[in-house]
Structures are given as C-alpha cells and as structure tokens.
Amino acid sequence: MIRKNIGYARNVGKKLNFLIDVMFSLKEKYKKEVIPQMMEKFGCKNPMAVPKIEKVVVNTSFGRLIAGKTTEEQRKIQEAILNDLSLICAQFPILTKAKKSIAGFKIRQGLPIGAEVTLRKQMMYDFLERVIHIALPRSRDFQGINSKSVDSKGNLTIGIKEHIAFPEISIEKAKFIFGFEITVVTTAKTREEGLELLRLLGFPLKS
C-alpha cells in the first residue's frame, strides 16, 4: 500500500511544483543565478568549486507514540507514519531502531522507533521547493528560519512541527499528527558559504 502511494505522491509533487511557478526550478535557479553570484562573492574561479546541496535527510521519531502500546497498536502507528512520510517525500522511508532499552518508556533495544529518508538529485530539489514555498509558510507561527540553524559546515537543520503542513497530506485522513526534522547537507566549507548558498536559493533565513 505504501509503495503504491509513493507513485501517487510523485505525481502530486510534480503538479504542486508546477503550480508554485511554471518558470521556477530550484535546480535551474542554482545553475543560472546562484553559481554566478557565489563565484563573484567568494572568488571561485571554477563553477564546480561553488558549494551546492548534496542531500536532504528527513527523519522522525515515534518512540513516544508507541510507548506502552500493544504490538498491534504499535504496528498501526508505525504504518500510518511511514505512509504519510512516503507521501511527503515520494520515497519509501527506512526504519530506525532503538539502540538501547528504556524501561520507563517500555522501549526495548532493537524496537523500531523512527523513520528516515535520504533524498538526492531531482527528488531532493522537488522536496525543497515544497518546503520553501508551501510547508514553511503554512507552518503555525512561522516567522522565518533562525540563521543559528546553520552549523559551522554550512548544513541547515530545521524542524517541522506538524506534518500536515505539506499539501500531500489530507488533514481529515491523517490518523496521527507528528513532526520531523529536515537536514540540508551542503558541500560548503564554511558557515558563511552555507548561509549565502541557502539565502540565494530562497530559504527564508532571518538575519
């Protein structure tokens, strides 16, 4: 069922990206606008030396949701979250398991407590376009991304509090509301390079 939804999500994603702006493409913007500006600002002589986004990692934890639940309840929660995450990312997530047992939460070592998706190339750009132009503006009380979310290597990590901010998810059909973390991994060598790259790409970073 989840794998069938991935194909549906990809089609929905394509339509949404088209609606964002017929002429807009994050990948094309990088090539035509970002590279020249980055070369001028940082003195890069070769376009290949300009920092770029290497991959995007999306991960969520549902350990608290399944804590104390029966095996069948755990399975249903896990299945619902994997289904929604696959719709959002248009790629099947992999499960992450508990590294150690936590008696207080009734979590045993090896129990699936989260899910992770790694996006690259065009799927990465498609996902980020929806994050920038749809999900973040729809997020409750969103006022921009704190620049402190960019680390010393130019990688950005942000949290989405409610997955229903993504248009692929029907609020009426969502069985659980969960949040997840997005890490945008760049090839920047410094924080300054990473910040400039993300700003030029359109990430709503606050000063």
Characterization of this structure:
By secondary structure, this protein is α+β, with helices and mostly antiparallel strands. It has a single domain (2-201), classed as Ribosomal protein L5 (50s Ribosomal Protein L5, Chain: A). The protein has helices at residues 2-20, 26-42, 63-66, 71-89, 121-138, 191-201; strands at residues 53-61, 94-97, 112-119, 156-160, 180-186. The protein has a five-stranded antiparallel sheet with strand order 2-3-1-5-4. It is elongated and about 60 Å long. The termini are far apart. Mean pLDDT is 85; it is low at 18-23.
Strand order of the largest sheet: 2-3-1-5-4
Task: Please count the helical segments.
Answer: 6
Helix and strand element order: HHEHHEEHEEH
DSSP helix fraction:
40-55%
Helix/strand-derived category reads: alpha+beta
The biggest beta sheet is recorded as:
5 strands, antiparallel
Poorly predicted ranges (pLDDT <50, ≥5 residues)?
Answer: 18-23
Number of strands: 5
Query: What percent of residues are in strands?
Result: 15-25%
Distance between the termini: 44 Å
CATH fold assignment: 50s Ribosomal Protein L5, Chain: A
Total domains: 1
CATH architecture: 2-Layer Sandwich
CATH class: Alpha Beta
Q: Which descriptor suits the 3D outline?
A: elongated
User: Average pLDDT, to the nearest integer?
Assistant: 85
